[in-house]
Design goal:
With about 80 residues, this protein is of the alpha+beta class. It has helices at about 25-40, 65-75, and strands at about 15-20, 45-50, 55-60, 80.
Length: about 80
């Protein structure tokens, strides 16, 4: 795993956010969602599945779930609560 957050240290708390994402129809779609999420400052990693319509995002506490939802929506997909 590549650490995409250079300021993360042992004292940095992380949280895993789970999103239900719809509109993904193929591996290209899930790859796009993964890339845009991982380019978000504070996101350490993202695992996205178009088959399961879901995403699990590991991020620092500084990243809100609302910010992640907005990122997915801006990429052209829908997030269901």
């Amino acid at each position: 795993m590549v650490d995409r957050w250079p300021f993360r240290g042992p004292s940095m708390n992380t949280i895993t956010h789970h999103l239900k994402i719809s509109g993904m129809t193929c591996g290209g779609c899930s790859g796009r969602v993964k890339r845009v999420l991982e380019s978000t400052p504070g996101v350490i990693s993202a695992e996205v599945s178009h088959e399961a319509n879901s995403g699990a995002i590991l991020a620092t506490e500084a990243v809100s779930k609302d910010e992640l939802i907005a990122t997915v929506i801006n990429a052209g997909f829908t997030v269901n609560s």
